[in-house]
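Dear colleagues,

I hope this message finds you well. In preparation for our joint manuscript, I am sending the Probable soluble pyridine nucleotide transhydrogenase (Nonomuraea glycinis) sequence together with its predicted structure, so that both groups work from identical material. I would be grateful if you could confirm receipt.
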Amino acid sequence: MADFDVVVIGTGPGGQKAAIAAAKLGKRVAVVEKRNMIGGVCINTGTIPSKTLREAVLYLTGLNQRELYGASYRVKDEITVADLGMRTQHVIGREIQVIRSQLGRNHVTLLQGTGRFLDPHTIGVIDDEEEKKVTADKIVIATGTSPARPDSVQFDDKTVIDSDAILHLEKVPETLVVVGAGVIGIEYASMFAALGTKVTVVERRERMLDFCDLEIVEALKYHLRDLAVTFRFGETVAAVERRSRGALTVLESGKRIPADCVMYSAGRQGRTTELCLEAAGLSADDRGRIAVDENFATSVPHIYAVGDVIGFPALAATSMEQGRLAAHHACGEPAGEMHQESPIGIYTIPEISFVGKSEDELTRDKIPFEVGISRYRELARGQIIGDSYGMLKLLVSTEDRRLLGVHVFGTGATELVHIGQTVMGCGATVDYLVNAVFNYPTLAESYKVAALDATNKMRVIARLTAEL
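The corresponding structure tokens are as follows:
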């Protein structure tokens, strides 16, 4: 008899939910996690620290209040790394306590150490150079990812850093080069720009966030430029030369950019090197990712993988649901399928969130649609909070009036998007939003305004078509 019914390697969002779901089904469950890494990358170096840092930046800089109190408004004149870190460490500590409590009250055994496969059913847990062996009927891999570090870059975690090390800077840099305009790169670029750092973003592609709606991305770019961010699109870094004071970033075009600090945001690598996957009959691709089927099972049927380690979309929210579904399947418990329309949230300043299709995708697929727009400056709540730039965009099918996409830019975007997600998930039409009553004054009211905008446009088209 195996020591456990289910062993989960990793306690990030996917691992937590897999372990707890299996425990709720009455299984004997254990989780393997390195000492001082409870909650995984999400809690300790990724999602939670970066989003808490963002809140600290917004509060201390007073950025969101400047339309009301003037461009010079600031809660604290000299913002230090200690100011930012205090709030971050408080939240991390509380979240770790919550996770430990959840695992404990669900009787999930915590095995502290680094896990690796000894054979398809046996995990070795190494802690303080001692290895403990445990066996399991089912195993779930939820080891997450770490920042990719190109061999050509000499990281020193002070001058040339990745997104993990940026949380441990000794001081707020006066100048910063961010290499890579993906989600993580742009999030940190916007945070440091809000702090007053002169930021230069270098991206080899011709645009940033190319999976987002172009109009929304252009609005974000405008605001980042207003925070003195410089963009270098279509540029590739040839070398980064460390100096006694900072670093010099050399581009292939010949441009040279001096800065106190250079942050590389070159994607992420699956944490599979230490797993000894070959002992279980598994392998990973060149980015450390493990292939799974629709039930998150690997090529070895009793071994599952969830979260960032399996690749796209690599979001904490989707990882949680993957973990729950994998656990149910592993335990032979019926489970529904994950909804195809999962929201994407990007915590830039200002933030972006969307669900469904973009205008470019619908145009490419020749799907007719109408656009409904609501701008925060036209809402009473927008005036109250001092957000005159935010907007909500609805993409509505002109054939059956269903919502095809919802795109939000501005305050509360990552919260607001869920109203549209729910309407889409229930198969409702734009008419539901037209007829619904929203609290006043709220930003949620933007749904009704945008829905009326779209339906009014559709009415005009229908009338003109009828005259032909």
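For the figure legend, we might mention the following. The chain has three domains: 4-147+269-330, 160-266, 350-467. The first strand starts at residue 4 and ends at 9.

With kind regards,
E.M.
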